Amino acid sequence: MLKFETVNELTLKVTCTGNDVLFTKAGSFIAGESQNGKNYQFEKLLLGPQNNLAQAALGSLLRRVTGENLPLMKVTMNGDSVTYYANYGQHVVIYKLAVGETVSVESENILAFTQDCKYDVRFIGCGIISQKGLATSTLTGTGSSAYVAILSDGNPIVLSNIQSRSTISVDPDAVICWIGQSGTCDPSIRTDLSWKNLIGQASGESYAFEWSGSQAVSVIVQPSERRMNP
């Protein structure tokens, strides 16, 4: 069994009781401790975390085509241990998914997840005018220990309309992920284009991801926008 915690907001602490498997961003391990010698080992995944070889190969191809490719590392734990993971001082956000609950997240923002999460890629078809692509990585809870650790450039904020049923609008280049029931909480895109855009007087905030009050969702936003790829 695995338990996720944060240390100083910048490091993921994973406590393992017994035997288990963890999936992390390749190269993110920074330290570990275990009794009677090291009892965990690392293996780079050439395809993906799926147990079925054909599904793993198809998933790997889809991630490469959509730009959602994530170099993953499998950590096999044989006994009690505590291991630590981080990525260049980025903030770490932990979320525990309920069964059937899905987090849609940019692949670059994934630090780690447990094997109780089903990893996939889904087209959302609304990111063509931002640095965010047309597809997003998804992790869906399938068991009682569906932990996800997500990276943020700076301390993030969380917006939720689950109680208020308010409309949520965010910059696509600042959003890290959104969490809700699979297939029902993808955003629409709202544009604010006018003749001013043609003469160079745009505000720089001409488009946004928007969730209506009928979509029960939580959105995590980082205080930093994605940079234009060179």
Provide the descriptors you would attach to this structure in a database record.
2 helices, elongated, mainly beta, 6-stranded antiparallel β-sheet, Double-stranded beta-helix, 8% helix, 230 residues
Summarize the structure.
The protein has helices spanning 53-66, 195-198, and strands at residues 2-7, 11-16, 19-25, 29-33, 40-45, 72-78, 81-85, 91-97, 101-105, 110-114, 117-123, 135-141, 146-152, 157-160, 168-170, 175-181, 188-191, 207-211, 218-221. By secondary structure, it is mainly beta.
Structure, explained:
This protein has one domain (about 1-220): Double-stranded beta-helix, CATH 3.60.160.10. About 35% of the residues are buried. The strands form 4 sheets. A 6-stranded antiparallel sheet has the order 5-6-3-10-13-8, with no helix packed on it. It has helices spanning about 55-65, 195-200; strands at about 1-5, 10-15, 20-25, 30-35, 40-45, 70-80, 80-85, 90-95, 100-105, 110-115, 115-125, 135-140, 145-150, 155-160, 170, 175-180, 190, 205-210, 220. With about 230 residues, it is mostly beta strands. Helices cover about 10% and strands about 45% of the residues. The protein contains 2 helices and 19 strands.
